[in-house]
Amino acid sequence: MQDKNWLLAVILLFGVFFYLFICFAIDAQKILDVATELRGKAPSSKQPYHLVLIEQEQSHPYWQMVEKGALEAARQYGMEIEFNGPVRFSMEEQIKMLEKAIAAKVDGIIVQGLNDSKFSPVINRAIEKGIPVLTIDTDAPNSKRLTYVGTDNFEAGKQLGYAVVKATGGKGKIGVIIGSDTAENQILRLQGFQSIVDHYPDMTILSVKSSNISRIEAIQQAVDMLQKHPDMNIMVGTSALDGIGILQAKKSLGRNEVKIFGFDNLPEMLEAIQKGEIVATVSQKPYLMGYDSVRLLNDYLHHKSLPKEHYTQIAVMDKSNVTLE
Q1: What is the three-class DSSP state of 94?
Q2: Do 50-151+286-311 and 153-283 agree at the fold level?
Q3: What is the dihedral of CA 158, 163, 168, 170, to 10 degrees?
């Protein structure tokens, strides 16, 4: 009997100890939550949202600015974001990375929709699996993507056309280098540019070539154009490195009469405009594209509605208003 009473006493003591331990753990968590709130952060009951941004090319200056904006927004909203992209421009690699992100069941995808017919089926697959997708820089308008964040590329092409007309009086023989002949954003910019040039009978586009998003190829294509067309006196680039490549070709051939018009606001571009080596550029807002894409995904994940398109600003910069950013 005494042994039984002793065993009951031990069990009772153990029960009291276990109860006190549970109470202590609960109180400790409450204290931690209060301390967290005092530091300005709400206690988190789940892992932060995990986003993936699939860009056109790793280490490209333009996409590095997009990354900075996206990373700043991710920090602000307490989200995790990883950046993927091919080492060298490859639409097929981007699609593989999109499929990989879907398989990983991430919480959100931001992707450049380079070719609507190729990207739309994969984007739709992500949406059907409950993964929200935003397109950035280049849209896939026929997909089920939530929204597009970036430049109105047709309008940007028109602004480039207006800049050329203003600087040349609507006269000249033109060579155009586009970043890719398969990327929707580049095609739209070219179409917008042509829609303006077509109104001026003394302006003629002699040649259109692709740089494949490469400075070296932009140089090579520009050299080829200028050698084949000695009367070409205007050259236009529609992606970030095209104008810089054209400038190097112009210098190497001594074609000082050629007026150059570019795209984007990379430091080299802005310095060349200040020096009078490039006439003008259409400046996009890649930092804002990155920031707003993450901000809008955060809105969606918190049950807010999104616009069908979210166009970021563009501006024509020439010697009269250029500033080094």
Answers
A1: helix
A2: yes
A3: 30
> Is residue 210 helix, strand or coil?
strand
Contact in structure between 52 and 82 (CB atoms under 8 Å): yes
Show Cβ contacts of residue 29 under 8 Å, excluding neighbours closer than 6 positions.
none
Count CB-CB contacts under 10 A for residue 18.
10
CATH label, 153-283, candidates 3.40.640.10, 2.40.160.210, 3.30.2160.10, 3.40.50.2300: 3.40.50.2300
CB atoms within 10 A of CB 292: 21
Query: Cα(113)–Cα(293) distance, rounded to whole angstroms?
Result: 14
- Encoded amino acid at 107, one letter: D
Q: Where are the domains of the chain?
A: 50-151+286-311, 153-283
pLDDT tens-digit series, residues 69-128: 999 999 999 999 999 999 988 899 999 999 999 999 999 999 998 888 999 999 999 999
32/257: higher pLDDT:
257
Q: Taking residues 140-165, what's their average pLDDT? A: 97
- The phi, psi pair for 83, rounded to 5°, reads -115, 125
Query: Is 95 in contact with 72 (CB distance < 8 Å)?
Result: no
Q: Do the bridges between strand 315-318 and strand 280-283 make them parallel or antiparallel, or are there none, so unpaired? A: antiparallel
Residue by residue, DSSP assigns 238-294 as -STTHHHHHHHHHHHHT-TT-EEEEES--HHHHHHHHTTSS-EEEE--HHHHHHHHH
Q: The domain 50-151+286-311 belongs to what CATH superfamily?
A: Response regulator (3.40.50.2300)
User: Would you state the structure tokens that stand for residue 91, as one six-digit string?
Assistant: 């639409």
Give the other-Cβ count within 10 Å of 299's Cβ: 15
Residue 230: pLDDT over 60: yes
Identify whether the C-beta of residue 84 lies closer than 8 Å to the C-beta of residue 54. Answer: yes
Apex 191 CA angle, 186 and 192, nearest 5: 100
**Model confidence, pTM:** 0.80
